[in-house]
C-alpha cells in the first residue's frame, strides 16, 4: 500500500510519530523499494539507528535519506557539528558536548510531543562520559541554563535523545548528554513524579500512555494557551585547548520552527545536496 502511494513521488517526509518502541522502519523501506528520497523527524535513539542500518540498501537504490531531521534532534545536530568543525579547524579537540532544550508547554504540538515525553520517561538515559556509555535516570540531573533573551534561565533535565549517540559516534566527542525542560515550572515537577512513581513498563506501554495523555490533555491544552510556544536550543562545547563555545537558537513558535527546519532538510535532499544513503544531520554527506 505504501509503495503504491509513493509511485511518482520525489520525496516522502515521515512525521507520523511517536517513534518510540516502533519495531520497523516501514516508510523508509517503502521509500527504498520505490527509489523515493526520504526524511523523518524521528526523536528516538533506537529507531534512528535502525533507520541508519538501511544505509547500504538506500545507497544501492540511489536514494538520499536523512533521519532525525527536525529541530531537536535535527537543527541541534547541525549546530553541534559546526561547533566541532570550527574547533578542529583551529587544531583544538572537543571534549564535552551538551545539548540543552526548552519548550514552553507542548510547543503547540499537542498529543504527539506529550506522548513522546511520557514514553521517554520509561527509558534509561544513555549518555557518554570520557568515551564510556553510561545509563542515568530519566528526568534527573537538573541544571539551570540561561537561554538568553526571551527565555532566560530555565531548569532542564536528562532525557534519552538520539543526538547524544550520533554526536558521540559521528562527531567523535567523548562526553555527550542532553537535557530538556518545559514551562510552567510545575510541568517539570509532574514529569519528575511520573518518572519516579510510574513503573517503566507502564510508560513503555502505548495503550496505557495514551490513556494517561487523555487524562491530562484538557489541562495541558488550557495551560498551553497561556504558556505559548517559545522554543530554545543551546549547544555547549568544551575543548582541550581551553576554548568553550556556545550555539544558541530561539524562536517564538515551535510549530512554525518545525516546519522551517523540516523544509530546510527537504530542500537539501531535493536540490541534490545529499548523497545516496541514510544519514544523520551532522554528517557532511
Automatic annotation (TrEMBL):
Alphabetized InterPro entries for the sequence: NAD(P)-bd_dom_sf (IPR036291), Sacchrp_dh_NADP-bd (IPR005097)
Q: Which Pfam families match?
A: Sacchrp_dh_NADP
All copies of domain Saccharopine dehydrogenase NADP binding, residue ranges: 2-66
Source species, domain of life: Eukaryota
SUPFAM superfamilies from the entry? Answer: NAD(P)-binding Rossmann-fold domains
Q: Which residues form the signal peptide?
A: none
Its protein name is Saccharopine dehydrogenase NADP binding domain-containing protein
Amino acid at each position: 500500500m505504501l509503495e503504491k502511494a509513493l509511485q511518482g513521488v520525489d520525496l516522502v517526509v515521515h512525521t507520523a510519530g511517536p517513534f518510540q518502541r516502533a519495531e520497523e522502519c516501514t516508510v523508509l523501506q517503502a521509500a527504498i523499494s520505490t527509489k523515493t528520497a526520504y526524511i523523518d523527524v524521528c526523536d528516538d535513539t533506537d529507531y534512528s539507528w535502525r533507520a541508519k542500518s538501511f544505509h547500504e540498501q538506500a545507497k544501492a537504490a540511489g536514494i538520499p535519506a536523512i533521519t532525525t531531521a527536525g529541530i531537536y534532534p535535527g537543527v541541534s545536530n547541525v549546530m553541534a557539528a559546526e561547533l566541532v568543525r570550527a574547533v578542529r579547524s583551529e587544531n583544538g579537540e572537543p571534549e564535552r558536548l551538551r545539548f540543552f532544550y526548552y519548550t514552553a508547554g507542548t510547543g503547540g504540538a499537542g498529543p504527539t510531543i506529550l506522548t513522546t515525553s511520557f514514553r521517554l520517561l520509561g527509558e534509561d538515559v544513555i549518555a557518554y562520559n570520557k568515551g564510556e556509555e553510561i545509563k542515568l535516570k530519566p528526568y534527573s540531573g537538573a541544571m539551570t541554563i540561561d537561554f538568553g533573551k526571551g527565555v532566560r534561565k530555565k531548569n532542564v533535565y536528562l532525557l534519552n535523545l538520539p543526538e547524544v549517540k550520533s554526536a558521540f559516534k559521528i562527531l567523535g566527542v567523548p562526553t555527550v548528554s542532553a537535557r530538556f525542560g518545559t514551562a510552567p515550572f510545575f510541568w517539570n515537577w509532574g514529569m519528575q513524579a511520573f518518572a519516579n512513581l510510574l513503573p517503566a513498563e507502564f510508560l513503555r506501554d502505548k495503550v496505557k500512555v495514551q490513556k494517561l495523555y487523555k487524562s491530562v490533555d484538557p489541562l495541558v491544552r488550557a495551560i498551553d494557551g497561556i504558556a505559548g510556544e517559545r522554543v530554545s536550543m543551546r549547544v555547549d562545547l568544551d575543548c582541550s585547548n581551553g576554548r568553550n563555545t556556545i550555539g544558541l537558537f530561539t524562536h517564538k513558535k515551535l510549530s512554525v520552527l518545525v516546519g522551517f527546519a523540516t523544509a530546510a532538510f527537504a530542500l537539501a535532499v531535493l536540490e541534490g545536496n545529499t548523497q545516496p544513503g541514510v544519514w544523520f544531520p551532522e554528517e557532511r554527506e
